[in-house]
Sequence to fold (326 residues):
Amino acid sequence: MFFYTYCISFQGPPSNDMDAKNATFLTKFVLAGLSFQQEWHIHLFLVFLVIYLITIVGNLGLIALICNDPHLHIPMYLFLGSLAFMDAWISSTVTPKILVNFFAKSKMMSISECVIQLFSFAFSATTECFLLAAMAYDRYLAICKPLLYPVIMTNRLCNKLLVLSFLGGLLHSLIHVGFLFRLTFCNYNIIHHFYCDIKPLFRISCTDPSINVLMVFISSGSIQVFTIMTVLVSYTLVLFTILKRKSIQGIRKAFSTCGAHLLSVSLYYGPLLFMYVRPGSTQADDQDMMDSLFYTVIIPLLNPIIYSLRNKKVIDSVAKMLKRNV
Fold:
């Protein structure tokens, strides 16, 4: 019943086979999201530009810090550096197009640009899900099995988890892009979003998108269930282990180590689940855009701040670098 409702909500503009045959197939789309009055464009442009610059500087700076400090060449920070890279990627996939559209006379986007943006977004978002799960597993081993941690979480295993995360994101994005080519678009090319997301494309398709919806439901649902369950199980075991300890200092250290990751996971999965699990509807376009804006623009800005301010090794590394250079 849930999937039937989910599928029906994505039916595009009504058309039959004869109409589709006689229709003019479209190769360009109009991004109609984030439409504001003209006098607000300069202010919003500056806001998004500042956010984007801080996001790129923060994430790339964190990557440079990890690369240049040998003390940070351990699995925890290799995962963190990869997460920062994906945050910079997902922000660069979406934000530059938002900035251009504030002043562009035509908000047209070719179908090839749309497919590339969709692929880039799906790849970065999915890879980030796997990275968050790998980071949770790493913290479970470090806190629950501290003596075996160096034996289990070797650089080889860390590299395997990183490669599998990137391959999982690549495979998932290729599946959706591949199935997207079975859709045709005619008579209606306005996308009520600020980037080419898969749900708005389903709504304007003049081909029945039921198979595509099923693939999104199965693949995205299974990935989110797997990664969320990995995070929940890992931190449940971590919590039990922490509560067994009688050392206040050990408890504080464990909570300090895991607190930043839990906060990042909560911020990331909240809007993602709300957007892709609940049934879609035309009335939910504005809500979908706000959710998308949060995890494509705001979260990549917050992650380097969260992990830097709550991580003593990162702060010490920044202090050493400043002393060395300044």
